[in-house]
Amino acid sequence: MKRPAYVTDKVLKQFINNALEEDIQDGDHSTLSTIPKDLQQSAKLLVKQDCILAGVELAEIIFKTFDKNLKVETFVKDGDAVKIGEVAFIVTGSARSILSTERLVLNCMQRMSGIATLTHDWDSRLVGTKTKLLDTRKTTPNFRVCEKWAVAIGGGTNHRYGLYDMIMLKDNHIDYNGSITNAVKMAKDYIKKNKKKLKIEVETRNLAEVQEAINAKVDRIMLDNMDIVTMKQAVELINGSCESEASGGITRDQLKEIASTGVTYISAGALTHSADNMDLSLKAVK
């Protein structure tokens, strides 16, 4: 699949270099002390658990960033459903380079594949509806690029990437400011003054706040922790005047019922904070 816009070469280079520095620092001494400098070997990425595979492209970039002479032969691509025993790719070249990058590649792929697998499972519950599944900012610090990318690989839709690309006025913004009306007015004034192109989303907790957000003419209204009946009433109130988003403690079993209310989006932090790592390993090719 095509990389999302936020997965730039610059961002990946910074992430990979920081991760390698964290792990290796002044040297991978286990490898340096036991593996000859000129030894050439191969290793295969072995799938040990059925999953939606993610991080294949990233793995190749990690290998090439560390050692441009490493060669990677891929047999599956990001987003493919794989079975136990399948080989995703074979990397060939310096044995030292393969060993020094092994754990970073596995850490990324295991985590990303877990997120992609969970996202795919949840998204499949929305087939036949017009509702899209969103992630959130509940990500691991300094690993957001990989986790958001994995959601996209799994078939989900990315919400805002960070604090800079959308204005989201949550309960604390509103409570600190006094009202939705005041907060939205200030946000619109800020956008105009600073010549920004930012959408405004407002979190609402009841139907009165939904109506206030409608009157304030925002781009999206979040329906936070509402029951199904209230959510349906909120969508009817909104009546297509802006987008709507169900959020707050969303579970897999609720997805179809929530989508039946007609909401535009369902956002779930669970996609990134509650996904299990998938079992993958890098094994020497003998």
Brief sketch in words of this structure:
The protein is an alpha/beta fold and 286 residues long. The protein has eleven helices and twelve strands.
**Head-to-tail CA distance between termini:** 32 Å
Low-pLDDT sequence parts: none
Neighbour order of strands in the largest sheet: 6-11-10-9-8-7
Could you describe the largest sheet, including whether it forms a barrel?
6 strands, parallel
Helices and strands, with pairings:
Elements: H1 9-24, H2 29-34, E1 40-47, E2 51-52, H3 56-66, E3 71-74, E4 81-82, E5 87-94, H4 95-124, E6 132-134, H5 144-153, E7 167-169, H6 171-177, H7 180-194, E8 200-204, H8 207-215, E9 220-224, H9 228-238, E10 243-247, H10 255-259, E11 265-267, H11 270-273, E12 280-284
Parallel strand pairs: 6-11, 7-8, 8-9, 9-10, 10-11
Antiparallel strand pairs: 1-5, 1-12, 2-4, 3-5
Helix pairs in contact: 1-3, 3-4, 4-5, 8-9
